[in-house]
Design a protein that fits this description.
Low-confidence stretches: 1-41
CATH topology of one domain: Leucine-rich repeat, LRR (right-handed beta-alpha superhelix)
Helix content: 10-25%
Distance between the termini: 29 Å
Mean pLDDT: 87
Radius of gyration: 22 Å
CATH architecture of one domain: Alpha-Beta Horseshoe
Structural class: alpha/beta
Number of helices: 7
Length: 375
Amino acid sequence: MRPKRLALKAASFIAAAALLAAVPLSVPDSAFSTAPMTAYADESAGDLYYTVDGDHAVITGCNYTASSIEIPDSLGGYPVTAIGDYAFNGAELTSIKIPDTVTSIGNYAFSMTGLTSVTLPESLEYIGIRAFELCSSLSEVSFPDHLVKMNSMVFDSTPWIKAQRQKDPLVIVNGALIDGQTAKGDIVIPSSVQYVASGTFQRNDNITSVVFPSTVKELNDNTFFFCSNLTSADVRYVTSIGSMAFAYCNKLTDLKVSKMLTSIDGYAFSDVTSRATITVYGTKADWDSVEKNDEDVFLNNATYVFDDNFEIPGGDIVGDVNDDGSFNLSDLVLFSKWLLGDPDAKLAKWQNGDLVHDEKLDAFDLCMMRKALIS
């Protein structure tokens, strides 16, 4: 069951560059590979400037006085697959049409424009840092019917993100947790989340602990950067911890990881001065095999507890539709929401919910799940 499309009513280059310089960010290579930043475009077409990168075209700039622009699906005989960094930054643009060939939107691409609404194409896979930041009139955003990976603060300082935060401090779109700036206290990220955007909680000094679900495998860059009151993080299901993920979290004293972890970026715990207890759900040999900075002060000052009684989730456990390694009430709630058509309810392993064994999911399976839990 695919979730319904969400339709939600949500200057200058120098100013944008100053904002970028003010926030320490680590950007994945993919953020630049499809959207190279160029000072001048190779070609022009109407109100657009573009360059050809291999077998595709990249939008690099525009007529900054144009109020309405429609991006064609091809330019110069090449499909338009990317909108480059700063391409429309600071433009007077109030309306944009993006074709279904675009797979990535670059850093600051539409920031500080006059957009009031935007429809993101079905082809979209990635949105870069602060791509729609400071769009003071942007109140409607329509997303494709699938998970789109995003970098830090994509919709920061827009009416749209303000409205979403009022609905729920954890802003989740099609399985992607993209904002947690207003979250407070002890946070348990729901199992419907498959991806947590970089910088989701950065500089939030109101959160005290966090638990990641088994559905999230990456702890991305800057996720908890400068969360000054974060004391505990249970990320036992992640396989990698990104750059600056816990930087300056100087009250972090309880960290839980497991043998699923394979790498920790050398700057993941940059300038963390607290002494923590790190529980490793695995053996010392598992921990020693993790790729990490052997001179990291936080890791070297920690006390380690090893617990090898940990089963990696992913087995075929009857009823375990969220694939967290056990069958419990959370599976029943998730399955009920899915049957009711909740667009945020995603079954990580639907086959585990087919208790009737008829290759389909319906109310009969739900009844079987209830009986199984009661018994």
